[in-house]
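Working notes for the structural subgroup meeting. M.R. asked for a predicted model of this chain before we commit to crystallization trials. I am recording the input and output together here so anyone reviewing the notebook later can reproduce the run.

Input as submitted:
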Amino acid sequence: MKYARRPVAGTLVAGALALFLAGCGNSVDPIERLGRKATHDQPSPSVPSGAAAQGAPGASPSAGAGEQAYRKWGLTAPVQYAPKPAQKPALPPAAPGKAQVVDRIPVPATEKVVFLTFDDGAEKDPEFLKMAADLKLPISMYLTDNVASSDYGHFEKLRDNGSGSTVNNHTLTHPNLRTLPFAAQKKEICGQQERLEKRFGAKPTRFRPPFGNYNDDTLKAAAECGITQVVLWRASMQINNFQYAEGSGLKPGDIILAHFRGPSELKGATEVQMTARMLQSIQEQGFRIGRLEDYL
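Returned structure, recorded in token form:
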């Protein structure tokens, strides 16, 4: 199953793919619901629950960030980061009057780099703030107002921790945009643009549609709201393991979807535990983490 690279075709497959990858759905483990075994299903490492707008333009985490902190957060090796590229990869151009769709960064096959994105904003775990700051994780946040706005200050701290994390748009109320007319879609996107600008000081230029579902109206509405890029994903972190859009492992340039979720949605696991397992899997597969905005 693959994402279509052209926006029109993408509207036909995004819904089915998003269900497979649990793109902000009500269940965090759709494979279990479908009666399938999770891809990359390995014993989860023992992970402590929490041991003892835009970031800075062009900021990239240090290659050595987290060298002293990784054990504290249940990792077996320091997190490795990709430096900012000398030149941004060429992306397919956007159609006139529409936002550009990005689901993978076109890096060389030998460049084993992936990118972290977190959606929604329901969970606001202070231990996760410590983890992200200690490890210097560059996270692209896609925030939904009706769950994140109860404490936007939490995400402001994450944005401002020196890792180059960014705040982006994920609508006001997290609807399936493909079921809405153009005016309603525009209200969801532009409304969140206005709220994020008021709270964080700038309108985002990147947007993620809930569930990965979009159509031509979405791309037009996003563009009219000041969005230049609609960012999708190719791998989704569940509780213990990844689910992949294709194949059985990460690929160079993959955008990874995770969520700000807590024990009630992660079957007792914490956001810190889920993230540590995600980072461990990235390491085991030999990948480094890049700052998405440095490549877009």
